[in-house]
Design brief:
Helix content is 56%, strand content 3%. With 187 residues, the protein is mainly alpha-helical.
């Protein structure tokens, strides 16, 4: 085994070992950011900028599955709970929703394909990335069916519906909706 560009290799890349190392680095970076005790907005921005880049950079090298990424997300929630950035009884749907709709505004790495496909239309850089990604990343942008992918608004509406149908957590979504309606009525 030797290390090349921070990737453990022999004759091939050791994907299982690399996933473990990258996952540990991701959680360690998140933990070190949370120890600083920034306020919520800046802590989330810093995590999105510093910790998520570890995963995003590895996408072209290590073969991540959506299940692997979901497992990392579920490991991160107790870490956020320990440092009081996420309540123990908070619903998981709020994790990636925007702050305006009552969420925490974390970047969901499992939804990066919609970001790239939306930007592809306006940018030649994104178009080049989409054309090259042929099973290199978990997004698999060449084979992604645009019709099956939800836009950000459709995804947010779907998650809000799931969230509002929960008995305990749906009450918060209902209260947020009522506040928005009251504000609009007063204008």
């Amino acid at each position: 085994m030797y290390r090349y560009l921070d990737n453990m290799q022999a004759k091939r890349i050791k994907h299982v070992r690399m996933k473990q190392n990258i996952g540990e680095e991701y959680l360690n970076r998140t933990k070190s950011i949370l120890k600083i005790k920034l306020n919520g907005k800046y802590a989330i921005r810093t995590i999105n900028t510093c910790a998520n880049t570890v995963l995003i950079i590895s996408f072209g090298i290590v073969k991540w599955t959506p299940t692997d990424l979901e497992n990392l997300k579920t490991k991160m929630i107790p870490l956020l709970t320990r440092y009081r950035f996420y309540h123990t009884r908070a619903t998981k749907e709020r994790f990636a929703l925007s702050c305006k709709t009552g969420g925490r505004d974390f970047i969901d790495v499992t939804r990066l394909h919609t970001y790239f496909l939306n930007k592809e239309v306006n940018s030649s850089l994104y178009a080049a990335v989409v054309s090259v990604d042929d099973r290199c990343t978990p997004m698999d942008l060449v084979r992604a069916n645009v019709n099956e992918l939800h836009t950000d608004e459709e995804y947010n509406n779907k998650v809000k519906r799931q969230w509002s149908h929960k008995a305990l957590h749906g009450r918060h979504a209902y209260d947020l909706n009522q506040q928005c309606l009251n504000i609009q009525a007063s204008k």
